[in-house]
Amino acid sequence: MSHSLGQQLSCRRCAQALAVLAVVALAFGAAPASAKRAVPGNFMGVYWGNQAAEAPPPIQDAQWQAMAANGVESVRTVFNWSETQPRRDAALAWSELDTLVARAASNGLDLLPVVFAAPRWARIAKRPAAPPRDPADLARFMRLLVQRYGPEGQFWRDHPQLPRRPIRAWQIWNEPHAWWGWDVSRSRKERKYRFPAHYVRVLRAAYKAVKQADKGAKVVLAGLTTDSWRYLEQIYRAGGRGSFDVVASQTFTGKTSNLYKTLRYLRRVMRKYRDQRKGLWITETSWPAALGRAKFPRGQRPFATTDAGMARKVKDLFAMARKAARDKNVRLGRVYWYEWASPYASKNWIFDYGGLLRIGPGWSFQPMPALAAYRAAARSLTGR
Predict the structure, then answer these.
(1) This model's pTM is above 0.85
(2) Residue 311 is part of a domain; what is its CATH number?
(3) Residue closest to 254 by CA, chosen among 313, 177, 318, 320
(4) Are 374 and 47 within 8 A, CB to CB?
(5) Which of 53, 90, 101, 310 has its CA 20 to 30 A from that of 265?
(6) Does residue 14 sit within a domain?
(7) What is the 8-class DSSP label of residue 344?
(8) pLDDT in tens, 274-322
């Protein structure tokens, strides 16, 4: 970050972002005094990252204010292990993570880090998505993260001017059942590093490290997509029970009713392994407005839509989520929309069209129809 933590915005480039913030903040307004919360705390989430995280610092500052103003309660973002610890024995590069934590705290937002991307020295191979070789390496990194950003974290002592909002939930990896999340070849040499067995070893080590540093922290399982309940069963069969506090669904489907079914299937597996008391969150889902804008695989067509369609899907999603939160057989704890802002520019990447805001020329962040739907859902569900 090019300016000190907590410094006031002072550059002309942030004027446009602040104008957007003013519009959406006024639109959010205040909930009636009689409104009551209908869902658990930190229920309303979004993902922050990709191109939005490359904007000039003052514009990013304004976007974090906008997230809070529009009813976002929790922000899921990547804590990149490779970038933070590029060399095993060198001092860790904390500045980027410090900035994320400071922005969240300054705006009263909860933060859900997904710890991901093993550094080259820790990976089983040169391939960027290859998993860590030694679970102890990730365990040490997790311990350092909690010691810095947890309840007794050094970060809070170093920055007493910030509201104290320690990180209490940590997601360990992302979609390890897929090659893009856990790239292991079919060679005999790498066989022992395959999912689920090696992921469970890594997860178990990370869980112990987090709990040793912060007994009350929650460890969130990696997000599971497609047939997520089958992957969850594989994790249990590999000995994963007792190494996480929350199961994470990342389902992309045409109908919100299918998403509800997925949650019920996941709960069924959890009950089978006597783990029904654990939490269940949706850590990614969306219906990108990519129809007529991009080409994408046939399997992604069911959840591609238009600008107006995405707004309807946001409304339907949170209506379903409210029901799932109250359903004693589901007990949904959080929902993270993917994502806060995106460019709406790619010709072949569907998720470039999932943002509640569109990133335009000159780092303008333009509200899309889905933002109003998200804001309305937040007001209805949280009473804010």
Answers:
(1) yes
(2) 3.20.20.80
(3) 313
(4) no
(5) 310
(6) no
(7) S
(8) 999 999 999 999 999 999 999 999 999 999 999 999 999 999 999 999 9
